[in-house]
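ok so i was messing around last nite and threw this chain in just to see what happens. nothing serious, just curious
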Amino acid sequence: MVARRRFVGFKMSEADRAALQRIARSRSEKVGRASRARMLLAYRENPSFYAVGRRLSVAHQTVTRCVERARDDGVIAALDERSRPGKEPTISSEAKAWLVSLACDKAKDHGYPHEIWTTRLLTRHAREHCGAAGHDCLSRLSQGTLCKILAAQDLKPHKPRYYLERRDPDFAEKMAEVLCVYREVALLREADATHCGGEEQMIAILSYDEKPGIQALGTTAPDLPPVPGKHQGIGRDHEYVRHGTLSLLAGIDLVSGKLHARLEERHRSREFVEFLKQIDAAYPCGTAIKLLLDNHSAHISKETNAWLAKQPEGRFELVFTPKHGSWLNLIEGFFSKMWRSMLRHIRVASKQELKDRIMAYIDDLNQKPVVHKWTYKLNAQKAA
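result:
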């Protein structure tokens, strides 16, 4: 006598059917979810566990379990794996807390020559000292398990991350003063646009800094040009000749975008005074010159102050960024662009050639000056 076919019914709405069809056709879904979606769709068309199993090349018991889960938990819930008890964890929460505490220390504090932990060193230390700490479950700790425990706490002790400490007690006030200068620049631009630049400039605002230690490096063998299909870029010998260094003293007129620059062997007070003389000659006598600069010793030295004291009243005004606040100086962005676009791979035969090429770069930029704009707002300092 043939047994009656067993039928298991479950609810499937049109939205569920559309979702199952999308999952069954998907190439990015997990294989298990896509396979169960095909089982449920096939069973809906032909309610036979054996027929569906033969069609999809799976055991009929697998189809039965999937259909019964759809009946009990719902169609979409039946696509996911059921949670399983799994193996009991062998590493206790106290042992994990001990590992995390170790990771928050420095390796040198535990007698190692290393400054910071490597995952391999931390694993070895945990294995050797877990017994004394009362965590024998860590005696067979693997490096991969350690990484998982640290990742759960979002810890990476082997990757230091640098920060900039605020050492100026008046940081907020000085930053506000700098931002007021940038606001003044914006107002000058608006006024200049309104009057179409017809009036004489009564105030000039410059962002100034030095870029010391620009190396004049030369090649020991000629560079090789790129070859299509063979060499993508220029070929260069690893050895180089060092001809010395230069210091770039530069200032950007924040209203017009013009660059004022000079190259020196060093960047002492006398070189800074020479730059001030260059700026003094570049602007009419009635123009007030405001310089935004950092707290380098050359900017506040006796020699610099003595020269400034001899100038007409109101001719020069120096606005200093806070200590560890050079990022507020807009010219730092220009130096970064200059390094990435021009200086990074430069090779020269002498310091004079390096000087000539840098000044040619400055002259080229001054052909079409770029007006640099500051976007950090005054009210943003409150959230900083």
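not much to say yet. The chain has a mean pLDDT of 89.
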